[in-house]
Amino acid sequence: MALLTDVFLPLVIILLIFWYWYRSQKNKKYYQNVATPPTVPILGNALDFTTTTELLGTFMRYRKDYGGLVKVHIGPLRHFLLVSDYKMLEYLLSSPKIVDKSEDYKFLSSWLGTGLLLADGGPKWKKHRKILTPAFHFQILEQFVDVFDSCSNVLIQKLDKEVGNTSVDVYPFVTLFTLDVICESTMGTKINAQDDVTSDYVQSVKHMCRIIIERSISPVQMYDFLFVFTRNYFIQRRALRILHDKADGVISQRLRELQAQTKTDSEGDSEGIKKKKAFLDLILEAKVDGKPLSQDDIRQEVETFMFAGHDTTASAISFTLYCLANYPEVQKMAYEEQLSIFEDNNEPDVTYANLQSMKYLELVIKETLRLYPSVPIIGRQSGEDFQFDNSWIPKGDTMLLFLYGIHRDPKYFKDPEVFDPNRFENPDNKMPYSYIPFSAGPRNCIGQKFAMLEMKCVLSKILRKFELQPAVPQHNLLLTAETVLKSANGIKIGIKLRK
Ligand code: HEM
């Protein structure tokens, strides 16, 4: 006993003090000149973020009070660097080396595996990015206009039933529309989410999107070993089985069809009809190092497109409708542009050429994405220590790139809180990293052209059919930074039939 108290305990204390001293000496070179908001013991800055609706406001305050680089502590073990400094954003996004996603994306991995969005920036990501890029060539995108158009028609029917309602939350309608679009374009199969909202598939997508967010802020669910004891774990397990089975089923069926088609073609019995290709077909045809992708790799890319391509566009379309409703002058100009393109206002179908000529609508979407970027924050980490200005940033530390923050910086946007699509009329490209709704650099959004066409198509059809009005009673958005930007109290507008 005496040995324990006289020798062992003091030794442990000395070692701990030495370890603490050594760590603080070693860490001295890190984060120099980077401010930290005042912390409380153990919790650090955690009390500033108790809900996802506080996040953007707190980050904006940090930015205003402490500048473009802020070190934030969450509890005793976690910290991150909040980045909205122009030069640092440019450095990080253009770097061919800092291409790894941060830890925060891990809750998505049971669904998306190592598909493009989550993959570290190693050789696999590079090869997959290279073979998937041609899938977004305009000749391929052109084929999807029919899909955008027919899914928009279903949405119009749904909104038609809301005519006269002065306070419609458009987000639930739009998110089912974008799910229909992405499913048909990616897998080449219809899920009819807009007509069958209770289907297992639609519900599973919804559960997964919800659970990912709940896990990222819950001190219990964020740890895998505790998560397995929660109800969400069992819901997630079932949802993943449904989602994976669906994707696997579609992939196997397409493979069989392709094999049968090759056989018929080689027997000279082809009817000569060129079937529209879904993204899946292009992935099935692609070769990496001379070999086709494995079934797992294919499924992960398909599910990545499903995830990355539906909630993002739903957020952008819904906020654009909100802005059009609340800025009647802007809506008038957007509507007049539609009239100039479709002389007969009842013209039902939209073509690729029509979409190309919707220049003003594009400005409206761009300005909406400035104020309401679908992805308000993205996370990165570096594989090695690096120096920026006079500060060293350690390898593996999370850096949160605050896109929402730089989009509202008066240094780059005059009167940043004002919604003014004309500010993009003659863009000067001198500061390209101040406007990055689709990110930038090697890991930018692969689907941005697809998204722009889809958004223009559906907005064009809605604008021609309905007059959008500010909601009554007045609706103030309560922005919440989940995986995508949403409004916690809905995105509400009034809908009136155009005469
Ligand atoms: C308004 C719509 C959209 C917005 C604002 C948007 C925004 C973004 C952003 C900011 C990133 C970077 C994420 C990060 O670094 O963590 C990203 C990546 C990505 N997006 Fe989009 N996106 C949209 C639509 C789409 C669509 C329609 C698709 C697919 C059809 C898509 C597929 C992807 C993929 C696969 C990545 C990962 C790329 C990589 O890391 O190589 N996105 N998107």
Structural topology:
Blueprint: H1 2-26, H2 52-66, E1 69-74, E2 78-83, H3 86-94, E3 100-101, H4 109-112, H5 123-132, H6 138-143, H7 145-160, E4 168-169, H8 171-187, H9 200-217, H10 224-227, H11 231-266, H12 279-285, E5 287-288, E6 291-292, H13 295-326, H14 328-341, H15 352-356, H16 359-371, E7 377-381, E8 386-388, E9 391-393, E10 398-402, H17 403-407, H18 448-465, E11 466-470, E12 479-481, E13 485-487, E14 492-497
Parallel strand pairs: 2-10
Antiparallel strand pairs: 1-2, 3-7, 4-14, 5-6, 7-10, 8-9, 11-14, 12-13
Membrane topology: Peripheral membrane protein
Family: Belongs to the cytochrome P450 family.
Organism: Tribolium castaneum
Describe this entry's structure for a reader.
This protein has 18 helices and 14 strands. The strands form five sheets. It has a five-stranded mixed sheet. Strands 4-14-11 form a three-stranded antiparallel sheet. It has a two-stranded antiparallel sheet with strand order 5-6. It has a domain at 132-263 and 275-374 and 408-497: Cytochrome P450 (Cytochrome p450). It has helices at 2-26, 52-66, 86-94, 109-112, 123-132, 138-143, 145-160, 171-187, 200-217, 224-227, 231-266, 279-285, 295-326, 328-341, 352-356, 359-371, 403-407, 448-465, and strands at residues 69-74, 78-83, 100-101, 168-169, 287-288, 291-292, 377-381, 386-388, 391-393, 398-402, 466-470, 479-481, 485-487, 492-497. With 499 residues, it is of the alpha+beta class. The structure holds protoporphyrin IX containing FE (HEM). The site of protoporphyrin IX containing FE has 23 residues, from helix 13 and helix 18.
